[in-house]
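Project outcomes to date are best conveyed with an example. Our students and postdoctoral researchers have been running inverse folding experiments weekly, and each run begins with a structure described purely in tokens. The record below, which covers 128 residues, was selected by the lab manager from last quarter's runs and is presented without edits.
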């Protein structure tokens, strides 16, 4: 049988543990300032780290060479009005990844730090 003091201690520990897990879950779901900006302005964004963290750049049009952002992208948001196609090399060469408007990746997986050019397309068949 638990003493009253022990029972209160366990309840407090359980409550604190629940609080920590709730804060953790909220933190994981909270958008970064960069992500909030991208979602607010209907633009396409590239992020330095997974989960839309780190520095970011906004794109508004076809970009045949990302320059300083070459091979630097770890997550993306496409909140532009267009399909976005991301390419391995400059001038839309190499492999291609497609993101319809209003979609994202929180991680680029095997394509981490490899995007070099981005094309915007108004087509509805997800091609660029
Ligand atoms: Ca590349």
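After processing, the design step wrote out the following sequence:
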């Amino acid at each position: 049988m638990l003493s009253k003091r022990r029972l209160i201690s366990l309840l407090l520990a359980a409550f604190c543990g629940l609080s920590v897990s709730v804060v953790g879950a909220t933190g994981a779901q909270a958008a970064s300032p960069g992500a909030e900006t991208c979602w607010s302005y209907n633009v396409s964004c590239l992020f330095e780290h997974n989960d839309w963290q780190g520095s970011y750049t906004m794109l508004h049009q076809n970009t045949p060479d990302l320059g300083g952002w070459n091979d630097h992208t770890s997550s993306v948001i496409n909140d532009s009005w267009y399909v976005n196609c991301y390419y391995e090399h400059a001038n839309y060469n190499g492999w291609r990844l497609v993101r319809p408007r209003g979609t994202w990746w929180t991680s680029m997986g095997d394509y981490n730090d490899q995007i070099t050019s981005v094309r915007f397309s108004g087509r509805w068949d997800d091609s660029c």
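The radius of gyration is 21 Å. The chain is about 25% helix and 30% strand. The training component of this project remains on track.
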